[in-house]
Amino acid sequence: MSLTTYLTVANIAVHVLATITFVFSVYYNYVYVNIPTHVNPIDDAFGGKFKYLTFLDGCFQALYFLYALIMDVFPLIFPSKSSVLETLSQVKHFFFASVAFPLSMFVSTTFWSLWFIDRSLVMPKDIDLYFPIWLNHTMHTFVFVFTCLEMVTAYRPYPSRVSGMTTHICLQIHIVYSQCHMWVYPILSQLNLPLRCLFFLGTFVYTSVLYLVGEYFNKFVWGYQPQKVQNQYDP
User: Looking at residue 87, what is its pLDDT?
Assistant: First the structure.
């Protein structure tokens, strides 16, 4: 088999494994992870599971890889040059570049960085009884692994640079605080107002940098001849 065939098969395998992993993880998290109020008072507060960036990222990853898996089947239904297929592919590329990749990198790198500094800043040890370690890794480690595998097994044209996701995240966190007067993440309660502003500014800058990392990683892996590469490797 040619390199193109190997990459196509590998990319489909990534989509299958990631879809199973993230769909099940999100389902298990939503249905079975119920942390008592005395352990984590914020858990039952405004927003439910959807106030947690980890859970939202899991939902986005499940949505992306399921969509990508469906797109793997669509060429069997539509002609390869179909305008419908082209539009759906553009949606897939845009969602990966602007949401799935930078958000997974942000969640994974910030979570584990804070974990090794002081895990109580993100997930106090008492939560381990309710949030199993395998789920911790699927939601905080595998998101990084699968998006990197997606990057190296399929070329995608990157859209124009965007940074609205970070603004949405910061707004969401403050909406939750305004409703229940508790911060979603313990680290925020340890910071005064000036440091909190710096934290959110750093978050904005870091997420923007992660978008650029994805863009240049894509160019590093696939070279600087997008049309030629796309014609050869686009699944």
Answer: 85
Residue 162 tokens read as 């965007």
- Please indicate, yes or no, whether the overall pTM of this predicted structure exceeds 0.85: no
Structure tokens at 94: 């845009």
Query: In the chain, helix, strand, coil percent, each to 5?
Result: 75, 0, 25
One-letter amino acid at 109 equals T
- Residue 179, C-beta contacts closer than 8 angstroms, at least 6 positions apart: 45, 46, 47
User: What single-letter amino acid sits at 190?
Assistant: Q
Which residues, including other chains, have CB under 8 Å from residue 228's CB and lie 6 or more apart? none
Q: What is the largest CA-CA distance in the chain?
A: 59
Closest CA to 213 of 225, 203, 221, 201: 221
Length of the chain: 235
pLDDT at residue 179 greater than cutoff 60: no
How far, in Å, are 119, 174, 212 from residue 184 at the CA level? 15, 9, 27
13-27, 116-130, 142-156: segment of lowest average pLDDT: 116-130
* Cα separations in angstroms, 9 against 1, 84, 92, 96, 144: 10, 23, 18, 19, 20
Q: Decide if pLDDT at 230 tops 50.
A: no
Q: Which of 11, 33, 34, 14 is nearest to 22 (CA)?
A: 14
Per DSSP, the three-state class of 22 is: helix
- Which residue ranges make up each domain of the chain? 3-222
